[in-house]
């Protein structure tokens, strides 16, 4: 209903009488139920009557009756009948009680619905896992870290499990269990792996298991050169060992070109040493100085290819 003014004419002037504010046609609202509740979202419902005026609405929500969050404004039209309205509330905290209400406004004013509440669901526990570095050089360690996510993730015991290539056996526990911190995070100290290995984390009660993380182990390449400064066009011997032993593996002497690419300039096959190492040796003619390295190609699954340290060879006339 519109605000009305009664105009009364008299010999002494004009008297304007303004209708009471209660006559104003503010929207009618009713806070409804909630559906689709998850650990972090819910859909809020309500009813709005525009009372014939262009009307917008939104929902307020939050952990207390002070709310603190609201959905974007939406249009409820300008009809005279009740309109069902809804909006999605997101970014919620799992296992938490939230209050909410619908609020509507038109040119005559704002109306808030009654307060209602709901509780978000618990977030199921889950495990994430990563290893750094990956791949890791044979004999060095990789740090395995992860997080237990979900409701009640703090103070839980987690154990590391592994199985080595060819991954046909079961997983075995490694070391002692750790306790997750207040955020559910955990980190196992540097772990030396005997070969390419699959890792996973599991709660000690066996109820939650992480996805498998495969950590590749690269052979360790130790490189020696006879000199770091050579007459232009003369030869330099590149030699060294590969750990563990990989007799018959292809190796390449590579040089870094101006485009930043490693180019093979010589190569050969590793020779027998023992189970713990294999050797290589190759003389290379150096016409121009630069950066060199040894690349050893491994394709057997137990290990991955390895790269030795970069050495700089300078030339002189």
What does this entry look like structurally?
The chain is mainly beta and 317 residues long. It folds into three domains: 115 residues, Immunoglobulin-like, CATH 2.60.40; 92 residues, Immunoglobulins (Immunoglobulin-like, Sandwich), CATH 2.60.40.10; 98 residues, Immunoglobulin-like. It is 0% helix and 57% strand. Strands 5, 6, 7, 9, 10 and 11 form a six-stranded antiparallel beta sheet that branches. Strands 22, 24, 25, 28, 29 and 30 form a six-stranded mixed beta sheet that branches. The chain has a four-stranded antiparallel beta sheet with strand order 16-15-18-19, with no helix packed on it.
Task: Write the topology of this structure.
Blueprint (H helix, E strand, L loop, with lengths): L4 E6 L2 E6 L9 E8 L6 E8 L5 E8 L6 E2 L3 E4 L5 E7 L7 E10 L2 E4 L3 E4 L6 E7 L3 E2 L3 E9 L7 E8 L7 E8 L5 E8 L4 E7 L9 E3 L1 E2 L1 E6 L3 E3 L2 E10 L6 E7 L5 E8 L1 E2 L5 E9 L3 E8 L8 E2 L3 E6 L1
Parallel strand pairs: 13-20, 22-30
Antiparallel strand pairs: 1-2, 3-4, 4-8, 5-6, 5-7, 5-9, 9-10, 9-11, 12-14, 14-17, 15-16, 15-18, 18-19, 21-23, 23-27, 24-25, 24-28, 26-27, 28-29, 28-30
| The CATH C-level class name of the largest domain | Mainly Beta
CATH superfamily of the largest domain, by name, is: Immunoglobulins
CATH architecture of the largest domain: Sandwich
How many DSSP helices? 0
Q: From N to C, what is the helix and strand string?
A: EEEEEEEEEEEEEEEEEEEEEEEEEEEEEE
Main beta sheet, described? Answer: 6 strands, antiparallel
Class computed from helices, strands and strand pairing? mainly beta
**Helical amount:** under 10%
Gap between N and C termini: 102 Å
CATH topology of the largest domain: Immunoglobulin-like
Oligomeric grouping of the chains: single chain
| Overall tally of structural domains | 3
Radius of gyration: 37 Å
- The beta-strand count equals 30
**Low-confidence residue ranges:** 1-19
Quote the average pLDDT: 92
The rough form would be described as: elongated
């Amino acid at each position: 209903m519109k605000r009305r003014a009664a105009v009364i004419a008299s010999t002494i002037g004009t008297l304007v009488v303004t209708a009471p504010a209660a006559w104003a046609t503010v929207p009618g609202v009713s806070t409804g139920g909630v559906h689709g509740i998850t650990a972090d979202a819910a859909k809020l419902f309500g009813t709005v009557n525009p009372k014939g005026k262009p009307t917008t609405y939104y929902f307020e929500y939050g952990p207390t009756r002070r709310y603190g969050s609201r959905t974007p404004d939406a249009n409820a039209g300008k009809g005279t009948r009740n309109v069902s309205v809804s909006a999605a509330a997101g970014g919620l905290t799992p296992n938490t009680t939230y209050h909410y209400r619908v609020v509507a406004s038109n040119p005559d004013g704002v109306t808030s619905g009654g307060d209602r509440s709901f509780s978000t669901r618990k977030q199921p526990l889950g495990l994430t896992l990563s290893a750094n570095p990956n791949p890791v050089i044979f004999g060095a360690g990789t740090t395995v870290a992860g997080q237990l996510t979900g409701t009640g993730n703090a103070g839980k015991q987690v154990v590391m499990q592994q199985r080595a290539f060819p991954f046909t056996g079961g997983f075995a526990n490694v070391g002692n269990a750790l306790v997750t911190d207040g955020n559910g995070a955990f980190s196992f100290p540097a772990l030396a792996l005997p070969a390419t290995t699959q890792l996973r984390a599991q709660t000690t009660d066996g109820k939650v298991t992480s996805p498998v993380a495969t950590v590749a182990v690269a052979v360790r390449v130790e490189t020696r050169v006879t000199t770091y400064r050579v007459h232009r066009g003369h030869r330099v011997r590149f030699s060294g060992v590969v750990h563990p032993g990989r007799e018959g593996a292809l190796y390449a002497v590579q040089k870094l070109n101006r485009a930043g690419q490693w180019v093979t300039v010589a190569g050969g096959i590793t020779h027998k040493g023992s189970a713990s190492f294999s050797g290589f040796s190759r003389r290379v003619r150096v016409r121009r100085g630069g950066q060199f390295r040894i690349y050893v190609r491994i394709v057997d699954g137990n290990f991955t290819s390895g790269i030795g340290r970069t050495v700089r060879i300078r030339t002189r006339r």
